Amino acid sequence: MTSPSLLLLPLGFHDWLPVAQAATLGLLTFVQEDVPTVSAALLAAAGTLSWQAGFLGVFLGIWMGDALLYLLARGIGRPLLQRSWAKRFFDSIAVARSEKWFAERGTWLLLSSRFIPGTRLPTYLAAGFLRLPFGRFLFLTGTAVALWTVGIFLLAKTFGADLLNWLMRWNSSGWAVLLLVIALVVAIRLCGKLAQRNIRRRITAALGRWTHWEFWPAWLFYLPVAVNYVRLAILYRGFTLPTAANPGIFSGGFVGESKIVTLRDLHATSPEFTAVAHLIEGLTPPERLASLQQLRDTYRIDYPFILKPDVGQRGVGVKLIRTLEQVEEYLCRTPAPLLIQRYAPGPNEVGVFYYRIPQERYGRIFAITEKVFPTITGDGRRHIEELVWQDERARFFAEKYLQRLGERRSEILPAGETVKLVEAGNHAQGCVFRDGSRLWSKELEKGIDEISQRLDGFFIGRYDIRYSSEDELRAGRNFQIIELNGAASEATSIYDARNSLFAAYRTLFRQWEIVFAIGAANRRGGAAPTKLPLLWRKWRETTALIATYPLAD
User: Fold this and answer.
1) Percent of the chain with pLDDT over 90
2) C-alpha separations of 48 from 40, 53, 100, 542 in Å
3) Which residue has the higher pLDDT, 28 or 523?
4) Using H for helix, E for strand and C for coil, what is the string for 118-168?
5) Cis (ω within 30 of 0) for the bond into 304?
6) By the 8 A CB rule, do 224 and 501 touch?
7) Cβ neighbours of 516 (radius 10 Å)
8) By the 8 A CB rule, do 372 and 431 touch?
9) In what order do the strands lie in the sheet with 338-342?
């Protein structure tokens, strides 16, 4: 047993050595970041330096250096703006507008600048000058520095001393790429007054999508959600546990579920609230056309009506059919099972995300999404394609809109005439989503809960609803359910452009916590989650079918 007196002795040299090493590395990063980082990683890989001391030294040094740049810009640069001579060069309104933009859209800039040579200094100074909240700055830069440092340590362990040469080449080539991008932007601006306007708009729109997180590629946006999913799967001991959230739907509505089965259940239990749909029979296009005509005659379904796949996601393949030629073209395009659904004119549409914890008496509305179907208005001078590219939001979906419009893209739209750009109420198809919490009411929540509890084995999902009157919707009456999505659906109100990226992730994290909690409760009640091999097979089958679907309206 150690003598108590020994605990009072001062630490020896070897005890303080890791601290001294970490402090030295941290100070060296103030001069040059890459060499100390790679050196620490190589020493740790060789076993001559503990990885804890190496990592903490360079991490804290780089992070503190980033913070000092921010504080320098905010503490010295910002007060200079108040000087009389500076006001001649800086418009206070423009600065305020820039502050708002950086607060809403600056996240990706801070994260990406850590990995793009030459962009860190101006980005961090801009963050301080434009008064981004310091706590948020520290969180974002700390995350980026941690990822960068861990990556360097892993690469050093794998590739050894070659890493420093590679990193130096990346930095030098990175500057060349950055200069090339700057030159390209300048060239585009110089061509702005020439005839290359459409090219400039296309490039501007492509770059602009990266400044609006709602348009990020799914693989990038959902990375944090996937990490959180894995965390929950470990916590609840079940990777496919969400498939048990709705035992009455195949895979809980995760993948491969049949829309017609759910719609039939809805129509059987709540016919007054359901837009009737029928499965088209037959294998060949002529057989399916005959089946469709028989269904139309039997149930008196007139034009326009909806054709959509029985298995799908994100609104793919949904078409508003107005002519027989459109029917024939659709049936020849895909062999997938299809539904014919009576058109619910609306004209308004919402997505209502609902959940109920098993054994609880009442369910709740988690989120409401208002769906705005974008339009363009003619002026009698410009053709439709030009109007789309000049619209501040439509330009981000221009390619999809113009493909959908076909030959009409070259049509000059008369003054005051409008064209609807999308029919499917889905964000991926170009519909605009808004937070619809203002539409919540006790009556609506009670009505949705009653409809849901009539469905056997349904606990969580999103209703897509068409309605004509806000007052009637709030009263919980006179609306039509056109679709019900299960456990894999999401609270699409997150895509409101007024939401921050952090608010969106906060909502999605909470949503998946509820899905896992419901799945766990149902598992305790005897519901078995879907096996992973079956999910994988259904996902592959669905992906193959989606490739044959026509462009959604």
Assistant:
1) 41
2) 10, 11, 48, 53
3) 523
4) CCHHHHHHHHHHCCCCHHHHHHHHHHHHHHHHHHHHHHHHHHCCHHHHHHH
5) yes
6) no
7) 22
8) yes
9) 277-279, 338-342, 305-309, 319-321
Q: Which residue has the tokens 């959180």?
A: 228
Q: What is the pLDDT of residue 399?
A: 78
Phi, psi of 367 (to 5 degrees): -160, 155
- pLDDT of the residue at 175: 46
For residue 117, whether the previous peptide bond is cis, meaning omega lies within 30 degrees of 0, is no
Q: How far apart are the C-alpha atoms of 406 and 378, rounded to whole Å?
A: 17
Where residue 330 falls among pLDDT bands split at 50, 70, 90? Answer: very high
Q: How far apart are CA 100 and CA 215, in angstroms?
A: 19
pLDDT band at 99 (very low <50, low <70, confident <90, very high): low
Give the rounded distance of the alpha carbon of 371 from its chain centre.
Answer: 16
Distance CA 7, CA 393 (A): 67
What is the DSSP annotation of 73-136?
Answer: IIIIIHHHTTSHHHHTT--HHHHHHHHHHHHHH-HHHHHHHTTSTT-HHHHHHHHHHTT--HHH
Tell me if 140 sits within 8 A of 15, measured CB to CB.
no
DSSP one-letter string for 352-395: EEEE--TT-S--EEEEEEEEE--EEE--SSSBHHHHHHHSTTGG
Residue 168: what are its φ and ψ, rounded to 5°? Answer: -65, -40
Q: Is the dihedral of CA 537, 540, 542, 548 positive or negative?
A: negative
Q: Name residue 438's amino acid.
A: R
Sole residue written with tokens 């096996």: 531
Residue 251 tokens read as 């895979």
> Residue 129 and residue 408: Cα distance in Å, rounded?
47
For the segment 9-34, the average pLDDT, to the nearest whole number, is 65
CA distances from 388 to 19, 122, 123, 282 (A): 60, 34, 32, 40
Q: Are 319 and 338 spatial neighbours (Cβ–Cβ below 8 Å)? A: no
For 267-306, give the DSSP string. Answer: HHH-GGGB--EEEPP-SSHHHHHHHHHHHHHHHT-PSSEE
User: What integer pLDDT is reported at residue 7 of this predicted model?
Assistant: 37
Phi, psi of 544 (to 5 degrees): -65, -40
Strands of the sheet with 460-467, listed across from one edge: 432-435, 364-372, 348-355, 460-467, 479-485
Cα 93 to Cα 309: distance, rounded to the nearest angstrom: 50
Q: For residues 236 and 206, give the distance between their C-alpha atoms in angstroms, rounded to a whole number.
A: 40
> Which DSSP helix (H) or strand (E) runs through 351?
strand 348-355
Here the tokens at position 447 are 């009505």
Q: Contact, 360 vs 480, CB < 8 A?
A: no
